[in-house]
From TrEMBL:
<dbReference type="InterPro" id="IPR010869">
    <property type="entry name" value="DUF1501"/>
</dbReference>
<dbReference type="Pfam" id="PF07394">
    <property type="entry name" value="DUF1501"/>
</dbReference>
<protein>
    <recommendedName>
        <fullName>DUF1501 domain-containing protein</fullName>
    </recommendedName>
</protein>
<dbReference type="InterPro" id="IPR017850">
    <property type="entry name" value="Alkaline_phosphatase_core_sf"/>
</dbReference>
Length: 481
């Protein structure tokens, strides 16, 4: 991937692998463990066993083709897909989400989330931070230290870790534009880069291939070309000869890490290496962590249920991480704006994007429901915005029509964490362009997550100059619980 990460985000924790042996930690930001932070006068950490899996569809899911269909509208609005009935009387969704339709008793919708941006970077910042306002110094081309902190960063900062892993993790990659620029909104911003969320980078960057590789990889503009990416699940192990006895010896461990130093982007970071040793030891010795990460070697039946592709593996990893004790897992289903369907909207949703999403999210719902964990685990799924009511055709770029960016409304999927199934909050107008009933802001969306995590309204974080900031900027979306 192009080396274009912002200087405020240390390269050792974002772009490179700290290897202990031949496989290693593959992109873990081990310098961000709460146990290693040296913060003075930090606010108290909250203990909570509640969890959230935050599914983010970068690019913008079309509400018309998914959860807010308008079959009575004119052809230029309604599109090519037909609605189908769900298990909930009166609730209909896309015909290409049949597995979710059969599980509608487990999930609900908010069809009226709205904000004011039609631009990708600002839209990402708005939805990933839960803040509608534009921060001072916002730059759509790169994250800035003045950005609002992401929901994942806040969660990771205010919750006390339950395990060797941090309370919040993002996977399988950070969101990167095809040009190589890193999208704002994913990091800690004003909290300081030492509180960036962990990002497990298991999905290699590809400049023009999108979606759930290898099975469902595609190119929006159908230019051809190969996609040979491999989903690189992090395996944590010691190299041959590194026994438990040797691990207890500080010098041996540092020597072992030193053998792999050529893979590090060491500028400005090697002097901090010594204090990371305890994090490496705890992770290498934790069988639960090994199990959570090793999804491509899960049993065949499990992989088939979730899908043997980057979407299925990512949600299986998220499910295992929550089971291990991580409180919030942000799962990016498709990097590089995979859901940005300006053209070829209908074939790419039907054949490439909806099938792996429908399967993986349904498997996640089944697992959490059958285990009894769904009641304490919120699942949310959203994009940075929706799509325009009117279908458009960019003939010079795309073979078939699509829809453009639309911040005025999008549909949000919610399940578990106290959410009652089969409910629909909010209504849009007859063309699906604007909310006409119970509009909701991103601040309400974020508050819904924080409440489901069990965080009280008095919860706050400190910025890098010790000013307190309350995490709630809105009320949880009403009518869901």
């Amino acid at each position: 991937m192009p080396a274009n990460s912002p200087p405020s985000h240390p390269q050792i924790s974002r772009r490179t692998a700290i290897e202990v042996g031949s496989i290693g930690l593959l992109g873990f930001g081990i310098n961000h463990l709460d146990a290693l932070r040296a913060e003075a006068a930090a606010p108290p950490k909250h203990k909570t066993a509640k969890s959230c899996i935050f599914i983010f569809l970068s690019g913008g899911l079309s509400q018309h083709e998914s959860f807010d269909m308008k079959p009575e509208a004119s052809a230029e609005v309604r599109g090519e897909f037909d609605p189908i009935s769900t298990k909930t009387p009166g609730l209909k969704i896309s015909e290409h989400l049949p597995m979710l339709a059969q599980r509608s008793h487990l999930w609900s919708l908010c069809r009226s989330l709205t904000h004011g941006s039609n631009e990708h970077s600002m839209g990402h910042h708005i939805m990933l931070t839960g803040r509608s306002d534009i921060p001072v110094g916002f730059n759509p081309s790169r994250p800035m230290s003045t950005d609002h902190p992401s929901i994942a960063a806040i969660t990771g900062d205010v919750i006390q870790p339950r395990t060797n892993l941090p309370p919040a993790i993002a996977l399988p990659d950070k969101i990167v534009h095809r040009t190589g620029r890193v999208i704002p909104g994913q990091f800690a911003g004003r909290m300081g880069s030492n509180r960036d969320p962990w990002i497990i980078e298991a999905s290699p960057f590809h400049v023009q291939s999108y979606g759930a590789f290898p099975e469902y990889a595609f190119d929006h503009q159908q230019r051809g070309g190969e996609d040979n990416r491999i989903f690189q699940t992090p395996h944590l192990k010691l190299s041959q000869g590194m026994t438990q006895g040797r691990m207890s010896n500080r010098i041996s461990l540092l020597e072992e890490l030193g053998k792999q130093r050529q893979v590090l982007d060491i500028a400005g970071q090697v002097e901090s290496f010594d204090r990371y040793r305890s994090a490496a030891i705890s992770l290498l010795n934790d069988d639960k962590v090994h199990y959570a990460m090793d999804v491509t070697h899960a049993d065949e039946k499990t992989q088939e249920r979730y899908g043997k592709n980057s979407f299925g593996w990512s949600l299986l990893m998220a499910r295992r991480l929550v089971q291990t004790g991580v409180n919030l897992v942000q799962v990016n289903l498709g990097n590089n704006e995979s859901w940005d369907t300006h053209g070829n909207l209908f074939p790419h949703l039907k054949d490439k994007l909806f099938p792996p999403t429908d399967r993986a999210v349904s498997a996640l719902l089944d697992d959490l429901s059958e285990s009894g964990e769904l009641k304490d685990t919120l699942i949310v799924m959203c994009s940075e915005f929706g799509r325009t009511p009117k279908i458009s055709q960019l003939a010079k770029v795309y073979a078939r029509p699509g829809r453009d960016h639309w911040g005025a409304v999008q549909s949000i999927f919610l399940a578990g964490g106290g959410i009652k199934g089969g409910r629909v909050i909010g209504t849009t107008d007859k063309v699906g362009g604007f909310p006409i009933d119970r509009p909701q802001k991103p601040e309400n969306f974020a508050a819904t997550i924080y409440r489901a995590l069990g965080l009280p309204k008095t919860t706050y974080w400190h910025d890098d100059i010790d000013r307190p900031h309350f995490i709630y900027d809105g009320e949880p979306i009403p009518g869901l619980t």
